[in-house]
């Protein structure tokens, strides 16, 4: 059975070495102590969300409001940042379909998320809702990263509204990256598109339930983006992004080895 994974604050695992002890506190410790009911001697893993993975045995568990889990470190692994980064530009969608997309996308390997209020987005983030929406998306990807045993948690960027996505796409292309727009009328398959060996990132642009407008597609193409299709069928906005991420992850060799 795989060891349970818990998330530690970024930076706190940096100096750990085998034989050291680390005390996990806060909500993750309370979850470990009261929900998972960890016991001394159990093997667990700690990840910091930015690439450090620590494995060891639980030395002590303290429950209650001041819960703490003391870990005796056995191994420390520093996983390199993947390149190119796979970033999902997900249009806001109704019925939590956008949340399903980023959750599944995280499980299959995306590295970043950009929420986008597109022309046909029925859902809108205005004022405080943008801050709360971004925070909720960050919680979703963090939970999905833990579930899929990832050492890195994708970062959710600030909301991009309307045509501002074109500027973001232009910057990606100018930096040597690729921007792929999922569109049902595209002629080139995503499995065949060329991605430069030195590309720092690949942006995957996914529209809402009503799809992208012709004007949005044209503007993105002008910025250097390339429309691509996934296959012969039209997918929901909740599934298109994760499927595209999976195809790219396979192409980039990320699925060549199984996790321990």
Automatic annotation (TrEMBL):
Q: What GO terms are given for molecular function?
A: methyltransferase activity
Q: Which GO terms describe its biological process?
A: methylation
Say which domain of life the source belongs to: Bacteria
Location comes to: Cytoplasm
InterPro entries per UniProt: Alpha/beta_knot_MTases, PUA-like_sf, RsmE, RsmE_MTase_dom, RsmE_PUA-like, tRNA_m1G_MTases_N
Chief location = cytoplasm
Q: Which UniProt keywords apply?
A: Cytoplasm, Methyltransferase, rRNA processing, S-adenosyl-L-methionine, Transferase
EC number, UniProt record: 2.1.1.193
Q: Which residues form the Ribosomal RNA small subunit methyltransferase E PUA-like domain?
A: 26-61
**KW Iron (keyword) present:** no
| Catalytic activity of the protein | uridine(1498) in 16S rRNA + S-adenosyl-L-methionine = N(3)-methyluridine(1498) in 16S rRNA + S-adenosyl-L-homocysteine + H(+)
Ribosomal RNA small subunit methyltransferase E methyltransferase domain spans which residues?
A: 83-248
Mind telling me which residue stretches traverse the membrane in this protein? none
What's one Pfam family here?
A: PUA_4
UniProt enzyme class: transferase
Family membership: Belongs to the RNA methyltransferase RsmE family.
Describe the function of this protein: Specifically methylates the N3 position of the uracil ring of uridine 1498 (m3U1498) in 16S rRNA. Acts on the fully assembled 30S ribosomal subunit.
According to UniProt, the name of this protein is: Ribosomal RNA small subunit methyltransferase E
Organism encoding this protein: Occultella glacieicola
């Amino acid at each position: 059975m795989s060891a349970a994974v818990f998330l530690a604050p970024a930076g706190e695992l940096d100096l750990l070495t085998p034989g050291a002890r680390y005390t996990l506190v806060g909500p993750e410790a309370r979850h470990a102590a009261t929900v998972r009911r960890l016991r001394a001697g159990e093997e667990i893993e700690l990840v910091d969300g930015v690439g450090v993975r620590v494995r060891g045995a639980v030395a002590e568990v303290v429950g209650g409001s001041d819960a703490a889990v003391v870990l005796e470190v056995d191994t420390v692994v520093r996983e390199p940042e993947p390149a190119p980064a796979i970033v999902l530009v997900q249009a806001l969608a109704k019925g939590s379909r956008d949340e399903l997309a980023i959750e599944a996308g995280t499980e299959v390997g995306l590295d970043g998320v950009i929420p986008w209020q597109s022309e046909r987005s029925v859902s809108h983030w205005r004022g405080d809702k943008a801050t709360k929406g971004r925070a909720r998306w960050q919680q979703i990807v963090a939970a999905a990263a833990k579930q899929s045993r990832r050492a890195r948690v994708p970062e959710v960027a600030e909301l991009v509204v309307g045509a501002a996505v074109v500027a973001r796409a232009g910057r990606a292309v100018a930096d040597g990256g690729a921007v792929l727009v999922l569109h049902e009328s595209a002629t080139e398959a995503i499995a065949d598109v060329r991605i430069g060996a030195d590309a720092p990132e690949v942006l995957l642009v996914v529209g809402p339930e009503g799809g992208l407008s012709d004007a949005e597609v044209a503007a993105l193409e002008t910025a250097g983006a390339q429309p691509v299709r996934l296959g012969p069928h039209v997918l929901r906005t909740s599934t298109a992004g994760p499927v595209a991420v999976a195809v790219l992850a396979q192409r980039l060799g990320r699925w060549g080895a199984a996790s321990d």
